Amino acid sequence: GAAASLAKPSIQIKSDKDAMTITIEDSGVGMTKSELMNNLGRIAQSGTKKFLEALGEGSADVNLIGQFGVGFYSAYLVADKVEVVTKSMQ
């Protein structure tokens, strides 16, 4: 709502050792289903090896990784499962 859009930007990181999970929450604007599929799907489908090879060749879409942060991309490198829950402000 309006109060959420005026809130100070924040990021919270929580870990659950027993469940072996890390939860990262932020107060960002969120993404629509289409934005998730277009942006995050491209990162997930690129595959670590293919992305690293592309980096070496200079053909990787570094802007895409930069947009979502190396930290976000790294989740795909170390996790068995990455789950994104979002609510778009649109």
What this model shows, in words?
With 90 residues, the chain is an alpha+beta fold. It has helices at residues 2-6, 33-46, 48-57, 62-68, 70-78, and strands spanning 11-16, 21-26. The longest helix is centred in the middle third of the chain and has 14 residues, at 33-46. It is extended, with a radius of gyration of 15 Å. The chain starts with a helix and ends in a 12-residue tail after the last helix.
Brief account:
With 90 residues, this protein is an alpha+beta fold. Helix content is 50%, strand content 13%.
Overview features:
two-stranded antiparallel sheet; 90 residues; 50% helix; alpha+beta; 5 helices
Topology record:
Elements: H1 2-6, E1 11-16, E2 21-26, H2 33-46, H3 48-57, H4 62-68, H5 70-78
Antiparallel strand pairs: 1-2
Q: How many strands, what sense, and barrel or not for the largest sheet?
A: 2 strands, antiparallel
Looking at how many chains there are and whether they match, the oligomeric state comes to single chain
Measured between the Cα atoms of the first and last residue, the distance is: 11 Å
Helix count, per DSSP?
A: 5
Strand order of the largest sheet: 1-2
| Global morphology | extended
Percent of residues in helices: 40-55%
* Count of individual beta strands: 2
- Going by helix content, strand content and strand pairing, the class is alpha+beta
Element pattern in H and E: HEEHHHH
